[in-house]
Amino acid sequence: MHDYPPPGAFPVATVSDAMDRFGVADGIRPLWPGAVLSGPAFTVWTRPGDNKGLHTAFETIRRGEVLVVNGGGDVTRALIGELVVQKAKALEIGGIVLDGAARDVVELAGLGVPVFARAVTPAGPWKTGPYRINGPIAVGGVPVGPGDWVIGDDDGVAVVPAGEVDDVIAGTRRLLEGETERRAANQRLVPRG
Ligand SMILES: O=C([O-])CC(=O)C(=O)O
Ligand SMILES: [Mg+2]
């Protein structure tokens, strides 16, 4: 498993800027304020509204890995809730990103596992499959493969292809230096007239 920067080390917005502003999962939001994640993807492609594949993923997912689920963008069934996220916490995974929905949001915030999803609904999931584990998927229109770097913060989620991580981190650092200079210049502004 790759070692990627710790959660919150880099703003997702700037990392995306370093990929020519690509790589952002459209419409995927944190389910509680302040949630940050960073780690290698463990991917699941599931039938919309069905979480059997997620339970299978929990049999092999490793500490620090981020469970990334292509649920087809379905918002009518929650793929996870408190009980699933309790498993995620016990296994110390890096977090969960769903192109789908979740429920039990008050309890999720209390558990402190970073969870990002397209929607919230009280409707529970089906549990029959089919699903695919650790193959190429898409989340919010962005390709994700096993081991790609997934990062999330209050702005949303971005995915960096595993082979581009070093270049993107170097580019992000350069952009952050430029932003520091622009911030200082902004603070020197004074009103005219
Ligand atoms: O019933 C489910 O599979 C989803 C859920 O609410 C939980 O994990 O707590
Ligand atoms: Mg529940």
UniProtKB/TrEMBL annotation:
Family annotation (Pfam families): RraA-like
SUPFAM superfamilies annotated for this entry? Answer: RraA-like (SSF89562)
Catalytic reaction list: oxaloacetate + H(+) = pyruvate + CO2; 4-hydroxy-4-methyl-2-oxoglutarate = 2 pyruvate
What Enzyme Commission number(s) does the record list for this chain?
A: 4.1.1.112, 4.1.3.17
Tell me the enzyme class: lyase
The entry's function note states: Catalyzes the aldol cleavage of 4-hydroxy-4-methyl-2-oxoglutarate (HMG) into 2 molecules of pyruvate. Also contains a secondary oxaloacetate (OAA) decarboxylase activity due to the common pyruvate enolate transition state formed following C-C bond cleavage in the retro-aldol and decarboxylation reactions.
* Similarity annotation: Belongs to the class II aldolase/RraA-like family.
Please describe the quaternary structure of this protein: Homotrimer.
Protein name, as recorded: Putative 4-hydroxy-4-methyl-2-oxoglutarate aldolase
